[in-house]
Amino acid sequence: MVDTATAILVLVRVLVLLLGVLITYYSLQAYRRTGTPYMRNATLGFGIITVGVFLEGVLFEFAGLDLAVVHIVESVAIGLGFLVLLHSLRQ
Predict the structure, then answer these.
(1) So where does this one cross the membrane (predicted)?
(2) d(CA 50, CA 24)
(3) CA distance between the termini of the chain
(4) Distance CA 32, CA 10 (A)
(5) Which end of the chain has fewer CB atoms within 10 angstroms, the N or the C?
(6) d(CA 55, CA 74)
(7) How confident is the model at residue 47, as a pLDDT?
(8) Three-state SS letters, 22-56
């Protein structure tokens, strides 16, 4: 049986994943409309962050990795995504 805290965590993570997918999608649409390199980079940055959120859930739920390890994986992906976004904004 799943406890309440775990159920809430899964729900919140799924919502964050869905938001990440939507942001990445709309960012891609903006890039296609404008064709500007900074929008391409923003799409890539948002995509990397979204993949990190997805990987954390998959690695924890299905691969059985330790919670600390999956948080590290997610944090690295978020950091890389933020670096790409920073580069995009500095252009």
Answers:
(1) 6-26, 38-55, 67-86
(2) 8
(3) 50
(4) 33
(5) N
(6) 7
(7) 97
(8) HHHHHHHHHHHHHCCHHHHHHHHHHHHHHHHHHHH
Taking the model in full, what pTM does it have? 0.88
Q: How many CA atoms lie within 13 A of 16 on its CB side?
A: 17
User: Does the pLDDT of residue 91 top 80, yes or no?
Assistant: no
Q: What is the pLDDT of residues 43-77, one digit of tens each?
A: 999 999 999 999 998 898 889 899 899 999 999 99
Domain ranges of the chain: 4-90
Structure-block tokens of residue 5: 């805290």
Residue by residue, DSSP assigns 45-91 as: HHHHHHHHHHHHHHHHHTS---HHHHHHHHHHHHHHHHHHHHHHHH-
